[in-house]
Amino acid sequence: MRRIVIGGNWKMQVTSTTEAVSIADDIAQGLSTLSSVHVFIAPSFTELYSVNKAVKETQLKLAGQNMYYHEKGAFTGQISPLSLANLVDYVILGHSEPRRIFGETDEFIRQKLLKALEIGLIPVLCLGETAKEREEGNTKAILHQQLAGSLKGLQIEKMKMIILAYEPVWAINNKFLNPDTEIRPATPIEANETHTIIRDWLKNEFGAPVAEEISIIYGGSMNAQNAKELLALDQIDGGLIGGASLSAEKFLPIIRTAAHLLENRSTDYRWESNTLRFDE
Ligand code: PGA
Q1: Any atom of ligand 1 within 6 Å of the Cβ of 65
Q2: For a Cys staple, 185 with which of 221, 224, 253, 260, CB 3.0–4.6 Å?
Q3: Ligand 1 center from residue 94 Cα (angstroms)
Q4: What is the pTM of this model?
Q5: Digit-coded pLDDT (tens) for 73-82
Q6: Is 167 among the residues known to form the active site?
């Protein structure tokens, strides 16, 4: 079943444990009446332990912002998937920042995705084209390349566990990624088009029933103001939110909008949280 998912990607923005725990507490408290939405936040690795302790008994789940694909060994500076799995349910992979700033390739991302699935972490696989790639008419080709590069040949049962996040690079509120272009959210028409490209690729590769079960969320300058029109689209099953996830005040209204709009859809969103882990 598709999941309604709202994720908060904190990037390297919250650098104090006290602050991280306090924001997470506020978000968790606001979630008690919004059980239809699966919500996670991805604090920095160094804050995960404390935030995990604070929100353990709540509906708020945690995500890693990345990980390595070896479980253990002489890999200075890397995060083991096993360490991560002690603290989080989700892991963000293939985000445009590691892809475009640190040169992560589709194959590298695929290795991590396979490892995440093997150990029962839910991968949130990010995809997206740059402004230049879009201008040159290459959006579809880039998305197909990224999808094929990380997902081709995956077992259907594993595919069903993955969440895809379409995040056009030009929409991500990041000046390093977009030094020369105006940063703006995708319009509903643009987002609908690209989400359809992604779902069509999934249909082709895995068949229509499987494609219909996969959540495709949108990310890139989403906030409480524009969430309504984006989440109103049938092809959008939630959001991955950066800047607007850094306080409960900004984040909770987006979650409420998602709960309200998505609950009234015909899509089957009865996804049981106990199917979170493969091996359960
Ligand atoms: P933004 O970031 O909402 O700040 O644009 C989204 C993301 O990069 O996940």
Answers
A1: no
A2: 221
A3: 13
A4: 0.95
A5: 999 999 999 9
A6: yes
